[in-house]
Amino acid sequence: MESYHRQIALITGTSSGFGMLTTVALAKKGFQVFAAMRNLDRSGPLVQLIREEGVSELIEIIKMDVTDPLEIKQVVNQIADRFKRIDVLINNAGYAAPGFVEEVSLEEWREQFETNFFGVVSLTQTVLPFMRTQRKGTIINMSSISGRLGFPALGPYVSSKFALEGFSESLRLEMAPFGVHVVLIEPGSYQTEIWRKGLEATASTSMPDYQPWKERIRLEVEQTSASAGNPHDVIRLIEHILQAKHPKLRYPIGKGVKAGMAFKSLLPWSWFERIIVNHWRKEKNPR
Questions:
Q1: CB of 105 within 8 A of CB of 76?
Q2: 33 beta partners
Q3: Is beta strand 180-187 parallel, antiparallel or unpaired with respect to 250-253?
Q4: Angle ∠(205,210,215) on CA atoms, nearest 5
Q5: Taking CA 93 as the corner, what is the angle to CA 16 and CA 238, rounded to the nearest 5 degrees?
Q6: Does domain 8-281 have CATH number 3.40.50.720?
Q7: Which sequence positions are flagged as catalytic?
Q8: How far is the C-alpha of 32 from the C-alpha of 16, rounded, in Å?
Q9: For the segment 197-251, what is each residue's pLDDT rounded down to a tens digit?
Q10: Nearest-5° angle of CA 237, CA 65, CA 77?
Q11: Where along the chain do its domains lie?
């Protein structure tokens, strides 16, 4: 028998990282969770964690590619038909396409936006009629410090997150009269797979003029990742947001995130730029 008294949560990108941990955390809080992922062949770690935590009856793993509008519509309609509502949407699916602007193909730029931005728009548009009608709901969009600060060699990823920030801000203003909360989480570096995958992709690029920068950035990211925060801090933040009566729009979290944003907002751009460029230049080209 379906449990109609539970809050219904739909989460994307649940095969690893924040998505996987959030799926189990919300189930332990009593949510009925639909854990969406593009490739069910990658569901093994989530299945194992679900078994370890004993929450299998509260989680359904479903196939949904956020770049496929037909799959999105089918999944959302199936959930709504069964439970008559969707209470929480967490747009977490995404990846980081690395590379300097000059060397990243237009096709790669479009692929980055299809997942990180247009996928979010498409799924959100499909869920909104249910939340608007029920006059209640929370949409959490997983952004990044990269949605507030630009970084070299991450142009596609940074651009997609800047777009997500603007989209979320506009959507929040539209949905406020209907009791639907729109929230951005802006993490810094955490111990998840996204940066490792990005570094692997960066290694395949070959423009020699950028090679000193790439090596410096690779070392920097490796060092940062080694001391990155515990992803469970972000999961606890999500739980806090879902309990809040009036959640804020933005929640920056992680080592150095608030300081970086403060520097950008308070310093003249020329000073901020000089600090960043000099940092990346340091010992890059010893000639």
A1: no
A2: 9, 59
A3: parallel
A4: 80
A5: 75
A6: yes
A7: 157
A8: 19
A9: 555 555 555 678 887 777 777 777 666 666 667 899 999 999 999 999 999 999 9
A10: 85
A11: 8-281
